[in-house]
Amino acid sequence: MSLIRLVYASQSRLVEANRQVELDRIIESARRLNARHEITGFLLATTGAFAQVLEGESATVAETYGRIVADPRHAEVRLLAESPIDQRGFPQWSMGLAERDETTMFIFGLYGVTPEDDLPQHAADDLVDLAGELSRQRA
Ligand SMILES: Cc1cc2nc3c(=O)[nH]c(=O)nc-3n(C[C@H](O)[C@H](O)[C@H](O)COP(=O)(O)O)c2cc1C
User: Fold this and answer.
1) Looking at ligand 1, which atom is closest to the CA of residue 43?
2) CATH code for position 46
3) Rama region for 112: left / alpha / beta (φ>0; ψ in -120 to 50; rest)
4) What was the pLDDT predicted at 138?
5) Is the beta carbon of 80 within 6 A of some atom in ligand 1?
6) Considering its fold, how many domains does the chain have in total?
7) pLDDT per residue over 14-35, tens digit each?
8) Strand partners, 12
């Protein structure tokens, strides 16, 4: 088994009126499918963008990423990093989620993520560190 970690960022196509409902749907299907495929990771969401860390066996990560890229709920999906890992960084998360809101805004800001400098503008390693920080808060 070769474990890999994939990081991408994208522009959100969710509209404000049903953003929360759509986000709930995304995370529900992500958790269900990822549990089946032994994929773990973390999803960062702002009003304008997404960034996601996917960890797992290389073939299943590639297959999952293929489905995610084709999803019309986001656009301009850009692969930021794909590399082998020795162990998972998010072992307890079939998919963690953190939205940038009043309570998390400060931490997103510490990593430079603001509406003007949104998730796709950041390097993969910084996004993984931010996701790690937020996952520890939620554990
Ligand atoms: C931002 C975002 C993150 C997603 N994350 C995952 C994920 O981690 N795992 C997954 O299987 N599907 C994820 N999805 C959902 C897939 O795009 C897709 O809807 C799902 O895999 C079901 O595929 P199907 O509609 O072809 O059955 C995500 C979608 C979006 C928009």
Assistant:
1) 3
2) 3.30.70.100
3) left
4) 77
5) no
6) 1
7) 999 999 999 999 999 999 999 9
8) 74
